[in-house]
Design a protein that fits this description.
With about 725 residues, the chain is an alpha+beta fold. Helices cover about 50% and strands about 15% of the residues. The strands form eight sheets. It has a five-stranded antiparallel β-sheet with strand order 11-12-13-14-15. The chain starts with 6 loop residues before the first helix and ends in a 9-residue tail after the last helix.
Length: about 725
């Protein structure tokens, strides 16, 4: 099944493949992997500190977290843009909206953006592809992704066919009337009709895939500064004989060239140093799992002799070419974190930090050695005081241990100055150098207690400055890898894709990539991560207030569509879900009523205003008459009530006067009677008192006479 090609073409492929291998790049990549893993440098001394700082890993991991969050949080790192067009149905006529009966407008750019992203992240492990390509670029200078359409085997399905539904094709054998290949057909009689129980093959759409390609297996012309213009682009792939059989190749033709499948590169050795099973052992498998190198190459070569080099796709094993076909483009996308001008391969994040990691590791080792010696000093021992046990006793460190010596000079600690603070200060200086090179600061890695007293404005400026390099690397990643990768996927889906259903803005839609325009613009959105989203949401709110003010003032520079787009962007940036859950698209609303002639509207309005004024004047006059009548009735009623009140008051006053007069007479009579009774009582008491006083006087007179006769002065009578 080998393809007969000129020997010059095979020599060209092998020569370009050899030129595409750069041993110096392999060594630099292997060194970067070793630095990332924090492996020893080879100059370690036994008994001294062998610590290794992890600056390379710290910078790469921190940058990777921020970049992936920025890209995945945005949702639209790459956005396709085109003008909206009427949706065309299967009958070739525009599809009409059921409510408005207007043509349904389709924004194929928006549709392609959602479909390509959906296929990339949902139909494969797109996160792993981005992760591996990003990390490879940061660590190994280049990250590579291959985008391709992988054919799928046809699906077999049983069918019952009539004889006239089976056609015979010279090349494909038996075929159905609708173009399906018949794998098996068994005749049977149904009455007088001849039928066939058949098994047909239904072609399946290809699977669109993106694969991160290891750098050690990728080959490109050394003079290329752009993959799409490179004369040679290729990849060495480990494939089993079973894989080649699935691709339709005859393995018996490759028996003489499949002995190099266990080759291991410098980068692979660096990757697999911690693995217990190395790649070499895999090469010992036999049978269907036998490993063989398959070269997949995309070269510019004039194979047909027309004087123009075409882009050719080649499958080759050794010097045996299995397939050659002309293709539109090569499938690879490549990026470097820090590109070099006019060069394909730039610098990695590891290149910025490896020398700093080396210096900080040396300073850390020296500081730890000094700290160890200051906390566990060496001992001075005089030769005159040594015995055969002195050294053993000193080397045996335990609480309460004895040290045996002779003479008067006891072993004494050797005082040594602790220089670790100087070493640690030097490490801090190199940390500042690392921050200025990479933008990875302590504040960007997490909350530092030392920054709590700093102002919010100052911290915001510091974070903005530290993010500049990260945004620069992010933009390079999107511009050089994601954008071309999505563009290749867009063209593949447009060429080979079949209609499918997916949800866009909360509604399921039928997506037909074949209707997408051939040429489409791509917009790169970088810097729309979580932090920048907050700023974008605030800006949208301010813009919405401005739009409200313009509409309220009667301005005509803001339309419903513009307000809808702003609200839609606000919902998407806020992560609230689909915009259709909160606002309706003006395009889906029924058309507004036609606006009347302004002059007629003005005349009608004036007439309505005048009629309203007349009606108001009439109602005012009637209201006044009614109010006057009500006031007169109220006055009459009030006067009648006042008269009744006065009569009632007079009657009540007369009755009250008579009652008071009667009570006054009764009171005067009672008082006169009481006065009379009092005077009579007083006279009786006075008479009784006078009688009593007269009696008392008489008694006193008798007593006086008796006293004078018995006790007069001059002595007692009987003496």
């Amino acid at each position: 099944m080998a393809v007969d090609v000129p020997s010059e073409f095979i020599n060209f492929l092998q020569t370009e493949q050899g030129r595409g291998y750069d041993a110096s790049l392999e060594d630099r990549r292997a060194t970067a992997i070793e630095f990332y893993d924090g492996r020893p440098y080879g100059d370690e001394v036994e008994g001294r500190s062998q610590a290794v700082t992890r600056d390379v890993a710290e910078v790469i991991d921190t940058q990777q977290v921020g970049i992936l969050n920025t890209i995945l949080a945005s949702g639209k790192a790459v956005e396709f843009q085109t003008e909206a067009e009427p949706q065309i149905g299967d009958d070739g006529q525009p599809v009409l909206n059921e409510q408005t009966q207007q043509p349904v407008m389709i924004d194929y750019g928006e549709e392609a953006t959602a479909a390509v992203r959906y296929q990339f992240l949902r139909k494969q492990n797109g996160y792993r592809v981005l992760h591996d390509a990003l990390k490879a670029g940061q660590m190994e200078m280049t990250g590579i992704v291959k985008t391709f359409a992988e054919p799928q085997p046809p699906k077999r399905e049983p069918r019952r066919l009539m004889a006239d539904e089976i056609l015979e094709h010279d090349d494909a054998g038996l075929m159905t009337a609708d173009g399906l290949r018949i794998v098996q057909a068994e005749p049977l009689m149904d009455g007088e009709d001849l039928l066939f129980d058949a098994v047909v093959e239904i072609p399946q759409p290809p699977m669109f895939r993106d694969v991160a390609v290891p750098n050690e297996f990728f080959r490109v012309s050394p003079d290329a500064d752009c993959l799409d213009e490179a004369i040679y682009v290729g990849e060495r792939m480990r494939r089993t004989t079973s894989d080649l059989v699935k691709l339709g190749y005859d393995i018996t033709e490759l028996e003489n060239v499949w002995g190099t499948g266990n080759t291991n590169t410098t980068v692979e050795q660096a990757r697999d140093e911690r693995r217990s099973v190395t790649v070499q052992s895999v090469g010992q498998r036999t049978g269907a799992n036998k490993i063989i190198w398959l070269e997949e190459e995309y070269v510019l070569y004039d194979l047909n002799g027309d004087g123009i080099a075409e882009r050719l796709f080649v499958h080759r094993v050794g010097n045996v070419v299995l397939k050659v076909m002309e293709v539109d483009e090569q499938p690879y996308s490549l990026w470097s974190p820090f590109p070099r001008q006019h060069r394909l391969v730039g610098d990695s994040s590891a290149d910025k930090v490896m020398d700093i990691q080396r210096i900080r590791s040396v300073l850390l080792r020296q500081g730890l050695d000094s700290l160890y010696l200051s906390t566990s000093p060496r001992t001075l021992v005089s030769q005159d005081s040594m015995t055969v046990d002195t050294i053993d006793d000193l080397l045996t460190v335990r609480p309460g241990g004895l040290v045996r010596y002779t003479g008067t000079n006891a072993p004494a600690p050797l005082a040594q100055q602790d220089t670790s603070p100087t070493a640690f200060q030097g490490m801090e200086m190199m940390s500042a150098e690392r921050e200025s090179r990479t933008g990875v600061t302590r504040q960007s890695q997490g909350l530092n207690p030392d920054t709590m007293n700093k102002t919010a404005t100052g911290m915001g400026m510091l974070m903005a400055q530290s993010q500049q390099i990260e945004l620069y690397v992010t933009r390079n990643f999107v511009e050089f890898l994601i954008a071309p990768m999505f563009a290749k996927r867009y063209r593949l889906m447009r060429k080979f894709g079949l209609p499918f259903r997916m949800k866009i803005e909360g509604k399921y839609r039928q997506i037909d990539p074949r209707k997408w325009p051939e040429d489409i613009d791509m917009l790169i959105n970088v810097g729309i991560g979580t932090g920048n989203k907050d700023q974008k949401i605030a800006a949208r709110m301010q813009l919405f207030q401005i739009q409200q003010g313009i509409v309220a003032a009667g301005g005509r520079i803001v339309s419903e569509e513009q307000v809808y787009q702003n609200l839609r962007g606000y919902v998407e940036d806020s992560g609230l879900g689909s915009p259709s859950e909160y606002v309706l698209n003006p395009a889906d609303l029924p058309p507004a009523e036609p606006q009347p002639n302004p002059e007629i509207v003005k005349t009608q309005t004036d007439a309505q205003v005048q009629a309203a004024k007349d009606q108001q004047a009439h109602e005012h006059a009637m209201s006044k008459l009614q109010l006057d009548a009500q006031q007169m009735d109220a006055k009459n009623e009030l006067a009648a009530r006042q008269q009744d009140f006065d009569l009632q008051m007079q009657r009540e006053r007369a009755a009250l006067d008579a009652h008071l007069k009667q009570q006054s007479q009764e009171l005067e009579t009672a008082l006169a009677q009481r006065q009379q009774n009092f005077e009579m009582d007083l006279a009786e008491r006075r008479f009784a008192f006078d009688q009593k006083m007269a009696q008392q006087k008489a008694e006193q007179a008798d007593e006086k006479d008796d006293t004078i006769s018995s006790f007069r002065p001059g002595g007692e009578l009987d003496q």
